Amino acid sequence: MKKGEKRKQELLKIAYDMFLTRGYENTSVDEIIEKAQIAKGTYYYHFQSKEQMLEEVIDMMIDSEIETAKQIIGMDISVPQKIVGIIASMKPTEVEQPIKDTLFQPENVLMHHKVRKQLIDVLTPLLSEVIQEGVDEGIFECDNIPERVKMLLIISDGTFNEGTFSERDISVFIDMTEKLLGAENGTMSFIYDLIDKSEMEGAQ
Amino acid sequence: MKKGEKRKQELLKIAYDMFLTRGYENTSVDEIIEKAQIAKGTYYYHFQSKEQMLEEVIDMMIDSEIETAKQIIGMDISVPQKIVGIIASMKPTEVEQPIKDTLFQPENVLMHHKVRKQLIDVLTPLLSEVIQEGVDEGIFECDNIPERVKMLLIISDGTFNEGTFSERDISVFIDMTEKLLGAENGTMSFIYDLIDKSEMEGAQ
Amino acid sequence: MKKGEKRKQELLKIAYDMFLTRGYENTSVDEIIEKAQIAKGTYYYHFQSKEQMLEEVIDMMIDSEIETAKQIIGMDISVPQKIVGIIASMKPTEVEQPIKDTLFQPENVLMHHKVRKQLIDVLTPLLSEVIQEGVDEGIFECDNIPERVKMLLIISDGTFNEGTFSERDISVFIDMTEKLLGAENGTMSFIYDLIDKSEMEGAQ
Amino acid sequence: MKKGEKRKQELLKIAYDMFLTRGYENTSVDEIIEKAQIAKGTYYYHFQSKEQMLEEVIDMMIDSEIETAKQIIGMDISVPQKIVGIIASMKPTEVEQPIKDTLFQPENVLMHHKVRKQLIDVLTPLLSEVIQEGVDEGIFECDNIPERVKMLLIISDGTFNEGTFSERDISVFIDMTEKLLGAENGTMSFIYDLIDKSEMEGAQ
DNA sequence: GATGAATGAGTATTCATTCAT
DNA sequence: GATGAATGAATACTCATTCAT
Question: Both ends of chain A: CA-CA distance in Å?
């Protein structure tokens, strides 16, 4: 890493926080440089434009997501557990506690949209490998694995990352996952125990 | 309808088109009133703010969507066909030809997000009734119908309304739908013939 | 009073309250008609313009002020007491309890300015008569009565109607009044007992 | 003074003139930048808002007023002459010929109000020192000097800065000033000779 | 007497970006 | 590498007033 890169990384970190908490569109370049204590010129020395900075912030998020996924894959846990681990890691809030659910707030529609799209693209092959492992082990039985994985990711994002969900949502999700992957009934039911009850419908 | 309401409806229609083609955020009030040939004051006489106008535009879309869904339900077609018809109607482009896919373009993330959310909420009970009908007829066999419906809507939106999709996506979707609803293999395979091939991967 | 005059009087009353509490410039015609439950056209049927309405509101205030002053003059109290009574009545808050000091708030600079000017013009001759009465009785001894009265009104407005004042301000005011009118030391010292202590410096 | 400060000072000077001649509220930001030949952004780079600019303009006026007062205090003239000099300097028009009485025109109520308030606060201690000097010299004899000073300022502003005044107003003002400060009859009568007759009642 | 839809000039403010130093 | 003064197009919204019905 070059010398000037260090400051750039700091800037990305600051912007990442601000975009997440206030939304990309509600965060002005002025606010970023004020928080970073740098001059306007310095900002534009490092980034061509605000939008390009957003891309870099997102890349940073995606990279860290891939990292996490790879770590999970390398763990000594069962295939179903790896799947659930990777899906759960899509939610940044699981990792970064102080920032709570903000990526999924209305002010963050644009950023969520971009992240979600790339995340699905990037996680699909990784998760596909895991599923294939499961197929090889005889736990799953299915074809068109990448397409099934994509669907899995779409559903989990749509179900758990927006608004609230109920116990029934979980049970249907488990049922669907098993059938989608051609697993035996009950294979994925351990999911239920992992869910953060505080986010469930009716919870305060 | 009161007298003043007529002009308001015209305005909503114009804004609906503009929001859809250029995106909500990229459409300025100035552009709307210029197209509508009215004065600034007239605009603000009818709408408290641009955002409130967006809400009304969305309400209009939702209302028309409900109307369409109800018509489909009333038709003399099979239950699986009703389901597919309602799901397909979520895409406004099927109805309004001139506006092509724009609701799902990047500039329309915000609007798509809002519409999608409400659409799912509003279509879920309607579609649930249809599924129940199918259960009663013995075509389907499942519990937690509303949750399954919601998942169906999330998937179809995520799969077909964003970016491109392949034949494999369709076949997985059909498989998943059948299993999600507890239908016999092949029940939904007629879907494949309905898909607009021009939107498929590889197609221009 | 004509029939239509009744509604006009109601409107003036409503506007008077609004102007006083929110300031003339911060009160829009829309807000007035909404509170009065009338149409725009009706408003402009009764008033040529918003500014002309302000004049009428001020006239209303001045008229009521004159009325009060005349009543005080007619009372069976001493000349010094009449003087103080009239001066005190300049503050609308003494009469209209719910509206507290608002005429002298920053948002009401314009209205205060206009009222103050007219009030001084209108009260000067009335108060001059009272002073003359005092001269005739031998309590006061001075020439140029109207000019002295005007000065008295300017001081009392500037001292008591804006911001806070202290006991020393009162004692200087009393001293000055006595000397300005050529009264014996102690003639006006009863004023001190009448002052609303709650408005004094240091008071909560 | 930093480099960027120079342009800011120019802007303040321009705004000062415009606020004075046309009134604060009647001067738009557009007009200011057009006269200053700068871009909108430049204006908002230097000032947070139009209102904040007004505060800075007023501060500038107050500062120059204090400067003038201090110069007068340092002069080799009699105490009564110092007093009159300071009071007279409250009127900016005495100093800045091109701007004629505008601060006291109806369109300037707001600005006059703000200036007047601060001016009284700022001049009171300065003038009090002068009075104390006079007391020490045996010319005046009084207590509660700051309160008397404040009253003096209120009266002179109310009498000479608004509308017209007559010879009688002057003579009453002189009489009152002498008595307020406990001076011998005739001490302040030189004032009469200093008054600009062109502003007196009857004069055009 | 009363209505309310229509007007349109006017206003302050935002903000990503540039560039000479 | 870094600065910060300058840019100017863009934007949403206000509000007193008019007038046909």
Answer: 46
Beta bridge partners of C105: none
Residue that the structure tokens 């002009």 belong to: B7
Look up the pTM and report it. 0.85
- Residue C73: other Cβ atoms inside 10 A: 17
Within 7 Å: CB of B1 and strand E? no
* D110 token code pair: 């707001």
Q: Which residue of A has its CA nearest to B165?
A: A147
What's the one-letter identity of residue D50? K
What residue type is D37 in one-letter code? Q
Contact by Cβ (8 Å): B154, B120: yes
D51 exposure class (CB count in 10 Å sphere: 0-12, 13-18, 19+): exposed
Q: Which of C117, C148, C158 sits opposite D154 (nearest CB)?
A: C158
- The C-alpha atoms of residue A15 and residue A28 are separated, in whole angstroms, by 10
Task: Note the CA–C1' distance, C9 to F18, in angstroms.
Answer: 24
- Superfamily in which the D1-47 domain is placed by CATH: Homeodomain-like (1.10.10.60)
Q: Which fold has domain B58-194?
A: Tetracycline Repressor; domain 2 (1.10.357)
Nucleotide nearest residue A48, measured CA to C1':
E17
Q: What is the pLDDT of residues D63-119, one digit of tens each?
A: 999 999 999 999 999 999 999 999 988 875 533 444 445 555 666 888 888 888 899
Per-residue pLDDT of chain A (204 residues; tens, 9 = 90+): 566 678 888 899 999 999 988 889 999 999 999 999 999 999 999 999 999 999 999 999 999 999 999 999 999 999 999 999 999 888 755 334 444 455 556 678 888 888 888 999 999 999 999 999 999 999 999 999 999 999 999 999 998 877 788 889 999 999 999 999 999 999 998 888 777 666 666 554
Are the beta carbons of A176 and B171 separated by less than 8 Å? no
Decide: B200 and B164 in contact? Cβ < 8 Å.
yes
Residues of B in contact with A144 (CB under 8 A): 168, 171-172
Q: Touch between chain C and chain D (3+ CB pairs, < 8 Å)? A: yes
Query: Given a cut of 70, is residue B174 above it in pLDDT?
Result: yes
Residue C195, pLDDT score: 73
Rounded to whole angstroms, the Cα distance separating D178 from A139 reads 107
Nearest CA in chain D to C166: D147
The full DSSP string for chain D is --HHHHHHHHHHHHHHHHHHHH-STT--HHHHHHHHT--HHHHHHH-S-HHHHHHHHHHHHHHHHHHHHHHHHHSSS-HHHHHHHHHHHTSHHHH-SSS-SGGGSGGGHHHHHHHHHHHHHHHHHHHHHHHHHHHHHTS---S-HHHHHHHHHHHHHHHHSSS-B-HHHHHHHHHHHHHHHTPPTTTTTTHHHHS-GGGBTT--
User: What is the structure's pLDDT at A97?
Assistant: 43
Backbone angles phi, psi at D50, to 5 degrees: -65, -40
Which residue would you say has higher pLDDT here, C126 or D195? Answer: C126
Q: Locate all alpha helices (DSSP H) within chain B, ordered by sequence.
A: 3-22, 29-36, 40-46, 50-74, 79-89, 109-137, 145-160, 167-181, 191-194
Average pLDDT, whole number, for chain C? 86
- CA A116 – C1' F8 distance (Å)? 36
Q: Give the three-state DSSP class for C200.
A: strand
CB atoms within 10 A of CB A19: 25
Instruction: Tell if D22 CB is < 7 Å from nucleic strand E.
Output: no
More confident residue, D53 or B190: D53
**CA–CA separation, C154 and D156 (whole Å):** 10
Q: CA–C1' distance D12–E11 (Å)? A: 20
Q: Where are the domains of chain D?
A: 1-47, 58-194
Least confident of A126-135, A154-163, C140-149, C176-185: A154-163
Q: What is the mean pLDDT of residues B115-139?
A: 94
Paired tokens of A138: 């005889």
